[in-house]
Amino acid sequence: MRWSSHGRVPFLALVSVLVAGWLATGCSGGGGASTSTRTAATSSPAASSTGVRSTEPIAYCVTREQQASSGVAVKSSAGGTIGAVVQGRGTTGIVFANMSDNDLCGWLGAASDYAAKGYRTAVFSYSDQQDADADIADIAADLRRRGASKIVLIGASKGGTAVLAAASRVQPTAVVELSAPDTYEGMDAQAAVKTLTVPSLFIVGADDLEFVNSTDDLYSASPAKVKQRKVVASPAHGIALLPDDAVAGTIGQFLATNAPASG
Prior knowledge:
Helix content: 25-40%
Strand content: 15-25%
Shape: globular
Number of strands: 10
CATH class: Alpha Beta
Oligomer: single chain
CATH superfamily: Alpha/Beta hydrolase fold, catalytic domain
Order of helices and strands: HHEEEHEHEHEEEHEHEH
CATH topology: Rossmann fold
Distance between the termini: 23 Å
Structural class: alpha/beta
């Protein structure tokens, strides 16, 4: 399996999105582009933890159909809301955490694929009202309210640091990080990983030198009995590692072994 990754929106694509949004406002029509061609099982239509129905897509890669069927507004611990797309109906949930660009589109393809395999998945945009690890804990709590009895945390770069920092609150079944720095925006993954005993997967590109060092540090500090370090022959960082079949395969096998889909 190969997942596409997305970085910043190209200028022409951004213009297209803005024009489409203007037309939708004036003509109550339009649609969006999707990074995934696969249709996955969805959560209940327009489900919302706040009771607020959000019809405007939360990201350029989310279609109006996806937003209507899977878009949710999760109440945050800070009192605001966190925009998310929740797919699937399984009892094993996966929370995907973004890099510092806060672009959930890099995870949407993987989230849709895992939803189709029986997981309940969530991609979301950081609220910027609280630390990223607090957002992750709130999204995980929402998945549990929807029926997930187990939670897997997966994050890239900033998101990798954040899922490790959030683990003590979330109590996940397993954790996967890609290219995580030891610390980021006050979140201390190095301290958090020392008490993390659940199965843990650490992934990094061999030529992403600064993050090879942090990955080695995090892996070495982990007391987990089941832990794996995967170094890929690549300079890619975080989300950009996803198109590598070896990365997608490693994550898939790790989840199948330590946090299989259920329900």
